[in-house]
Design brief:
The structure holds 2 protein chains of 2 kinds.
Chain A: H1 5-17, H2 37-62, H3 77-84, E1 92-95, H4 100-105, H5 110-117, E2 141-144, H6 151-164, E3 171-176, H7 183-194, E4 199-205, E5 208-209, E6 212-213, H8 214-217, E7 233-237, H9 241-256, E8 262-267, H10 287-297, H11 299-309, H12 315-338
Parallel strand pairs in A: 1-2, 1-3, 3-4, 4-8, 7-8
Antiparallel strand pairs in A: 5-6
Helix pairs in contact in A: 2-11, 2-12, 3-9, 5-12, 6-7
Chain B: E1 3-5, H1 6-20, E2 24-28, H2 44-48, E3 53-55, H3 60-72, E4 76-80, H4 91-99, H5 101-104, E5 114-119, H6 126-129, H7 134-138, E6 144-146, H8 151-163, E7 168-173, E8 180-182, E9 199-202, E10 207-211, H9 215-227, E11 233-237, E12 240-242, H10 246-256, E13 259-262, H11 271-282, E14 292-294, H12 305-311, H13 315-325
Parallel strand pairs in B: 2-3, 2-4, 4-5, 5-7, 6-7, 10-11, 10-13, 13-14
Antiparallel strand pairs in B: 1-8, 6-12, 9-11
Helix pairs in contact in B: 1-8, 3-4, 9-13, 10-11
Classes of the chains: A alpha/beta, B alpha/beta.
Chain lengths: 368, 329
């Protein structure tokens, strides 16, 4: 690949937008005028849908319909929508195990996603992956991945494929703030920069890796952890969908045009526990802190206030949207409930792409 | 049939498959400008260009993962590990990503990719650079494991591995690269050996040495020695450890009623453990003696020449094991 102008361009841009401590372009802060009323209502509808969907998942988990680990994204909805909404169908998205809302944002149907959480045959991954492994290849949603940071090199590989085929697609890779401490992250960042791969790495900085505050395990701010590789770094307010969407829309275009990899810190906050088996607050963060964040930084409330103030949405319209998505979430649960469990035969399918000549798997299938 | 080295056979396989299919590319440390640490990829950079023959940083976990991501999106990467010793750094991507992706995505994503490089003991490279890595790879369902012991097998099996739609670990013998053997001329057509097929490398009636990879050559040497003592040894080369050719194992045991498993790896939960289990489960009544294993000693590889010799399987130990199962003194 040629030593490119694009790299230089990205660098120059970084210089123009960045400041001395390396913080790149702040969110553009563009206002509502960028969007029409229909789009703004769409933003609200989507975020409400993610919220209601996950509240349903929470209920189902509480009564044992969903097992294992279930990591909710409640509070972080604007990050999913803001980074996925501006993409084209053919762009790739990959994420870690907090993956339900990203899947919905990339166009997976709520019913089959809920059915996956329920471990049913109608689940997107046939009930074999569960909450942490939502896949939708048709929608180019390349999975929820369960090992912290392991999805980052995979994203680089997707960027590699795009470049190899000379396409103008991009890959958006989500990772948690704690994932920047994994070697896989650093190896992938370096390779992405060396090969100028069209990948946007989004660090969802929700301030805690499970129960460990990020400043306890990182000596420098998260945005600086992406530096040193020649990848432009940015920070965006992930609780404001207007700011996030505007910023991402521009950035995606730059990457399509050859700007190479990007590292974005999306500042956000998780309103629920790390997973359903963890407390919302307690030893590592106070109840007051969570309540204050919920009051001031709920992405749905932030959008609502902006739309109300600009008189672009009425209380009645909001309620109508909420009613509609609550119905969608209810129907997703019904779909999941109605879907059968996978048959016993499914235990042995999808281990290898082909069965061997005896129609068996493993050593020769003698374990069956 | 032309005689070429194991290294040349691998090189031919790579070149032919890259020629045949544009989605195949090779990445790894030193594979391009340096022609490969063991010169397996010699000349490929010139032939296919830097887009398809790619030098990576020393980041085993990272480039193994990059390969997985490329395979998830429809390419057919060949990830070269300079040696499989270094691939232990990459095992998270091999086991947790590559081997499980097809299953946990409910069949949505298959991974047509190859992890290849040398494995096994070399000469005085000590503990970290001289070990057999098969067991790390063969344990997880979802991955295949191929271990060619001859130039012909190296070529035919590598071509099959590149065409396979599952992730394949392809382990070459570090001391085999200069080994010469007959390999069909490329002019005579496509030479592909299907995975999962063992081969009887030598027919015999008295005792079976079952083995894989580099040790095939030691087994043949032992068979030659014992022939002089009127012992007729059958050598069965498994060639692929997953899928395993159970029928071939049972056939040789039913024929000779005595078996020794020979491998370079450690004994504890080694490949031989699985083979012995398979034999006792399915051919117990055919056995005239317990199945024995000859393996590396259960120690990290020592550096000192004399200790290294003691640690590795050698002809004397294989002969002794054969004699024991034959109840010969």
């Amino acid at each position: 690949m040629p030593e490119t102008e694009t790299k230089k361009k990205a660098k120059d841009e970084e210089k123009a937008n960045g400041d001395a401590n390396g913080q790149g372009k702040e969110g553009s802060g563009e206002g509502l005028e960028r969007f029409d009323r229909e789009q703004l209502h769409h933003f609200m509808r989507e975020m409400l849908l993610y919220r209601r969907f996950e509240e349903k998942a929470e209920e189902a988990y509480a009564i044992g319909k969903i097992g294992g680990f279930c990591h909710l994204h409640i509070g972080q909805e604007a990050v999913a929508l803001g980074f996925i909404g501006p993409l084209r169908d053919e762009d790739y998205v990959i994420t870690a195990y907090r993956d339900h809302t990203q899947a919905l944002a990339k166009g997976l149907e709520p019913g089959p996603v809920m059915a996956e959480l329920f471990g049913r045959d109608g689940g997107v991954s046939r009930g074999k992956g569960g909450s942490m492994h939502i896949f939708g290849v048709e929608q180019r949603f390349m999975g929820g991945h369960g090992i912290v940071g392991a999805q980052v090199p995979l994203a680089a590989g997707m960027g590699w494929s795009i470049k190899y085929r000379e396409e103008d697609h991009v890959c958006v890779c989500f990772l948690g703030d704690a994932a920047v401490n994994q070697g896989a992250f650093h190896e992938a960042m370096n390779m992405s920069a060396v090969w100028e791969l069209p990948v946007i790495y989004v660090v969802e900085n929700n301030e805690y890796g499970m129960g460990t505050a990020i400043e306890r395990v990182s000596a420098v701010p998260i945005v600086e952890r992406g530096e040193g590789y020649g990848v432009p770094t940015h920070t965006v307010n992930g609780q404001d969908i207007i700011e996030t969407w505007s910023f991402v829309e521009d950035l995606v275009q730059e990457v399509r045009d050859g700007a190479g990899p990007q590292y974005v810190e999306a500042r956000t906050y998780r309103f629920k526990g790390h997973s359903m088996s963890d407390p919302v607050s307690g030893t590592y963060r106070s109840k007051d802190e969570v309540e204050e964040k919920k009051e001031k930084e709920d992405p749905i409330t932030v959008l609502r206030e902006r739309l109300f103030e600009a008189e672009l949405m009425s209380q009645d319209e909001l309620e109508a949207l909420d009613e509609e998505v609550r119905k969608v979430a209810d129907e997703a649960v019904e779909f999941a409930e109605d879907s059968p469990f996978p048959s016993d035969e499914e235990l042995y399918t999808h281990v290898y792409a082909e069965l061997n000549e005896h129609g068996r798997l493993f050593l020769d299938g003698r374990d069956r | 049939m032309p005689e070429i080295t194991y290294r040349e056979a691998l090189n031919q396989a790579l070149a032919e498959e890259m020629e045949r299919d544009d989605s195949v590319f090779l990445l790894g440390e030193e594979v391009a400008e340096y022609d490969g640490a063991y010169k397996v990829s010699k000349g490929l950079l010139d032939q296919f260009g830097p887009q398809r023959v790619v030098d990576t940083p020393i980041s085993e976990l990272g480039f193994a993962g990059l390969g997985v991501g490329a395979a998830m999106t429809g390419l057919r990467p060949i990830v070269e590990f300079m040696t499989f010793n270094f691939s232990i750094l990459a095992l998270d991507q091999v086991i947790n990503s590559a081997a499980k992706m097809y299953y946990m995505s409910g069949g949505q994503i298959s991974l047509p990719m190859v992890f290849r490089g040398p494995t096994g003991a070399a000469l005085q490279l000590s503990a970290q650079h001289s070990q057999a890595c098969e067991t790390w790879y063969v344990h997880a369902p979802g991955i295949k494991l191929v271990t060619p012991g001859t130039p012909a097998d190296a070529k035919g099996l590598l071509k099959a591995s590149i065409r396979d739609d599952d992730p394949v670990a392809f382990m070459e013998g570090e001391l085999l690269y200069n080994l010469k053997g007959e390999v069909p001329d490329p002019e005579d057509g496509d030479f592909v050996i299907p995975l999962g097929k063992a081969e009887v490398k030598r027919e015999g009636a008295d005792v079976s040495i079952i083995t894989h990879g580099k040790m095939v050559n030691l087994a043949m040497q032992v068979a030659g020695k014992l022939e002089k003592e009127d012992v007729d040894v059958e050598v069965l080369d498994l060639r692929t450890l997953r899928p395993l050719d159970v029928e071939a194992i049972l056939a040789t045991v039913r024929k000779t009623n005595r078996a020794v498993y020979l491998e370079e790896g450690w004994p504890y939960v080694g490949i031989g453990s699985q083979i012995v289990t398979t034999i006792q489960e399915e051919a117990f009544d055919y056995l005239d003696a317990p199945v024995l294993r000859v393996t590396q000693a259960d120690v990290p590889m020592p550096y000192a020449k004399n200790l290294e010799k003691l640690a590795k399987p050698d002809a004397d130990r294989v002969v002794a094991a054969c004699n024991r199962v034959l109840y010969r003194d």
